[in-house]
Amino acid sequence: MQFRLRTLLIAVTLVTLPLGYVAWERQQCRRGQQAMEMLNQKSEYLPAVTRFGTSAYNRPKWLKSILGDDEFRRVNNAVLGGNSFSDSDVRALALLPNLDYVVIESPNVTDEGVTHLRGLKKVERFHVIGNRSLSGKSWAVLGEWQHLHVLWLDGSHFGGDGILQLPALANLKELSVNNTNLTDAGLERISWLPNLESLDLSHTQVSDAGLVHLKRLANLKDLTLENTKITNAGVKELRKALPNAVISHWKS
What we know:
- It is built from 7 helices and 9 strands, in the order H-E-H-E-H-E-H-E-E-E-H-E-H-E-H-E.
- The longest helix is centred in the first third of the chain and has 41 residues, at 2-42.
- Helix content is 32%, strand content 14%.
- The protein is elongated.
- Helix 4 (111-115) links the parallel strand 3 (101-105) and strand 4.
- The chain has a domain at 1-127.
- The chain has a 9-stranded mixed sheet with strand order 1-2-3-4-5-6-7-8-9.
- By secondary structure, it is of the alpha/beta class.
């Protein structure tokens, strides 16, 4: 009797496990598809989420009829541009697990929205353009993106110490803080990015006093200093410390 009961339990498990997976997968596909459709409908111009390049696998039609369409897993590019996007839309991005390029160009996205991106593990390039609603409290999310190598924060303001909350991004290669409220105090935080190769500080409040921090960036190759408080004398000294870096400095 005990043997029969054990056999029955095994048989039930073998039947219910596949059915459970099918139900779960269909739900994932449905939620992902709904997120894509919602974001693309709100975009004012081009689609908000797209796929660049070719995918290694495309689920055949017969399998889609069983498990659902997993197109959401092949989407890798997201651009939320315009006033129509807010924190709830950023939350929808979290349903697209393979995003590697994310652009937020909406003034309505706040720290709460950015924290929803924590689950994305493949982001390589992250741009926040023209946003003055972020304080920097959500930057901890960036520290969990092990593949992040390009970060643009152009035209954005983060409060007095927002940039100071930037985590030490070991793999970051390129940082642009063009036209932000960055000051010399922020340069000290930037000096914690050991593998930085390209840095744009144009149209910020940095001065000669902060250049001492940049001398730590031994891997720096390109530095742009358009319209800052930095003087020619300061650039001359910096070039001595970073002989391998191309430093572009001018005022218009």
